[in-house]
User: Fold these one by one.
Assistant:
Number 1:
Amino acid sequence: MGFMPRVPRVEFEGAVYHVMCRGNRREAIFRGDGDREMFPGTLEEGCARTGWRVHAFVLMGNHYHLLLETPEANLVRGMHWFQTSYTARFNARHRLAGHLFAGRYKALVIDPGDRSHFATVSDYIHLNPARAGLSAAGELAAYRWSSLKWYGSARRKRPGWLDVETVLGELGWLDRAVDRRRYVERMEERALEGKEAGDSGALKR
């Protein structure tokens, strides 16, 4: 029996994806803060090349999550450049060779017309450190390696490729100090609720 062909990626202008990829053999894709700083730097270059907009992201030990919007139908081309570039830079830093990521990245298509999904996926992404025990109760925003810290920052302090307005707008808020503070407080409350409930694990990956 032959191998089944890969299902082609769904690509179209204005597509929105929840992208996730793990390290090869579930090994770490970040060995230190230098790698974690290199990752968004590489992502910034990828966004400049492709026109992508990132609505949320988180870096974990052996995987990452992105809430990604592609104004052009270029997910495959952009992801190939992004993961290949990060892998080459990671390998050069650590004098390694070979694959860093395991198989195909996952890219769940989100209906860009259904704005109720942006906050849901963003919540899931931002809560990952709490679910993994990487942030203490009430300190989710202190986790350095997610976009949540920038959700609480003024526009001039955020990278240009990060769009917080869509998620805030879905919740009925604006990109202003009072609403950014509300969003961060909301996420801290959600993290605390999850801890008190014992984290059912239904969304944990």
Note: Confidence is low (pLDDT under 50) at residues 199-205.
Number 2:
Amino acid sequence: MTQIHSFAPIADVRASRLVLGSMPGKASLAAGRYYAHPHNRFWPFMEAVLGVPASLPYEERCAELERKGVAVWDVLKTCTRTSSLDSDIVEASIVANDFADFLQAHPHIQTIYFNGAKAETVFRRHVLPTLSASQARIPRIRLPSTSPANASIPLHTRLAAWQQVGGGS
């Protein structure tokens, strides 16, 4: 089992929307970039929803997200996992990122979107109890995972759900 660590957030102080994954997969960890697996749909969805071209260099895609008011981070700061699957995360190893400080530093966040069920579950269990009352009232929406492992939900259904992230750009 390997102890893994997440990345710093992609976030501008003016961000109004926060998209949270659970923990980067092996391809992303190796590349040092969010959603680096070639079959992950995150960047194609950001192109369809926000007009951020998936073909741009990574740094430019991140800057475009920031410009459009979308922040990206992971719920987990560190954990132990044997594969890229969320189901392989060892629950006892979970350490969440500091969202109380993050949300205080990003006061314009109006909605938190979860990229899949694991991100939402871990947030509810490990983060929600640490938030102030006003931070805990920020609306939260679970979206279907963009992971290639989430093949049971048709692509068009997942993309339709992700259109919500575009509301405020």
Note: The longest helix spans residues 117-127.
